[in-house]
């Protein structure tokens, strides 16, 4: 564990370095080759929201429909309004980009994904099966006026078009209006390398962080939350509300069942930051592998990749926990303070506690 003063939004040297496993060159989910991320951010007075898209491989929405990737999901606490999750759990594949947005925009963003896929593959819903759009949400209603229904299909398509390997973190895209431990939350990402006896694999995590009781915040094992509560207008016993979406990508050859096991380990990283998965917190994890694709056409040839043996999964589990914890920490340090609906304001960690290093040392 290392602590530094670097806290750039796109820094590969995070302010607080979690664990000992090495990172990839970008230090984000895009270290898994082919994975890209795009944002559309809405920041206008009471409207503080947006859309974030995660694409598992370089093709557009239609290509992903025709060439799916294996995936597995784990519902840690089901206080959420996602769409598409049930079919992923049943069939074990992704066939659309993964969209993140606010609670009231799920339907709009799902429609945008369907339109994009139909534009690329006109047979969808006619000669071809229908699309399963995967959209996850968190409630950003403290900072964002949900009743403005500000997110449009055009915003979702803008986020899709913006997808690239190097992307911003913090109060951007779907993370614009999110809160975390009573502070400004949002988008965070990290990567770790997992070394196994049959080779090294990359594990990348991306989170939409909108959860946590202020008093519970823990950075690299140091519980600094109680010190922050004294600076916040928050009750020390406030209930945990909000949600977090935990996305994990890997280039390791895993099937859907194994990927669900990986997704479960994202919960370990979440817990290390101080979450106890409270009643009002929707905590959902999804893991996917880019090592192989599954063709839509039944006449298409399946790629045969030798799956990792179950006994070799522990390094991937450890990498998932570390990358997830790091991604949450990165979301906190990358965020900027935001004022939104009815003058509500969330302070960034760096603004509320520029002395965070001293707080960590005092909590030792």
Which structural traits does this protein have?
364 residues, alpha+beta, L-amino peptidase D-ALA esterase/amidase, seven-stranded mixed beta sheet, 9 helices, globular, disordered N terminus, aminopeptidase activity, hydrolase, aminopeptidase
List the helices and strands and how they pair.
Blueprint: E1 2-3, E2 16-17, E3 36-44, E4 47-55, H1 61-66, E5 67-78, H2 85-91, E6 93-94, E7 98-102, H3 106-120, E8 134-138, H4 153-161, E9 179-180, E10 183-184, E11 186-196, E12 199-210, E13 218-219, E14 222-223, H5 225-229, E15 241-250, H6 256-272, E16 280-289, E17 294-295, H7 314-334, E18 338-339, E19 345-346, H8 349-352, H9 356-362
Parallel strand pairs: 7-8, 15-16
Antiparallel strand pairs: 1-2, 3-4, 4-7, 5-6, 5-16, 5-17, 9-10, 11-12, 12-15, 13-14, 18-19
Helix pairs in contact: 3-4, 6-7
């Amino acid at each position: 564990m290392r602590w530094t003063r670097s806290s750039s939004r796109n820094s590969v040297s995070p302010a607080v370095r979690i664990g000992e496993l090495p990172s990839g060159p970008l230090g984000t989910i895009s270290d898994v080759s082919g994975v890209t991320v795009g944002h559309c951010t809405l920041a206008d007075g009471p409207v503080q929201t947006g859309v974030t898209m995660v694409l598992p491989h370089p093709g557009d929405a239609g290509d992903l429909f025709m060439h799916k990737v294996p995936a597995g999901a784990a519902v840690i606490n089901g206080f959420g309004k996602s769409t598409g999750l049930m079919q992923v759990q049943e069939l074990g594949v992704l066939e659309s980009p993964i969209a993140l947005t606010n609670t009231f925009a799920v339907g709009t963003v799902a429609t945008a994904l369907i339109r994009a896929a139909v534009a690329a593959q006109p047979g969808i819903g006619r000669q071809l099966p229908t699309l399963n759009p995967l959209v996850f949400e968190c409630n950003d209603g403290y900072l964002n006026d949900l009743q403005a229904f500000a997110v449009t299909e055009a915003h979702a398509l803008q986020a899709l078009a913006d997808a690239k390997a190097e992307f911003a973190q913090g109060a951007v895209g779907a993370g614009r209006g999110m809160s975390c431990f009573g502070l400004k939350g949002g988008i965070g990402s990290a990567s770790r390398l997992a070394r196994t006896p049959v080779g090294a694999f990359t594990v990348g995590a991306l989170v939409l962080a909108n959860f946590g009781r202020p008093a519970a915040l823990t950075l690299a094992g140091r519980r600094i939350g109680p010190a922050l509560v004294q600076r916040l207008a928050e009750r020390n016993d406030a209930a945990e509300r909000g949600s977090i979406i935990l996305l994990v990508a890997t280039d390791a050859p895993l099937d859907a069942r194994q990927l669900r096991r990986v997704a479960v380990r994202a919960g370990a990283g979440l817990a290390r930051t101080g979450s106890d998965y409270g009643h009002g917190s929707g905590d959902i994890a999804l893991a996917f592998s880019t090592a192989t694709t599954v063709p839509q056409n039944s006449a298409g040839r399946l790629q045969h990749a030798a799956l990792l043996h179950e006994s070799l999964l522990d390094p991937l589990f450890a990498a998932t926990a570390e990358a997830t914890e790091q991604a949450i920490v990165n979301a906190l340090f990358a965020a900027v303070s935001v004022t939104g609906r009815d003058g509500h304001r969330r302070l960034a960690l760096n603004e509320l506690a520029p002395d965070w290093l001293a707080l960590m040392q005092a909590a030792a």
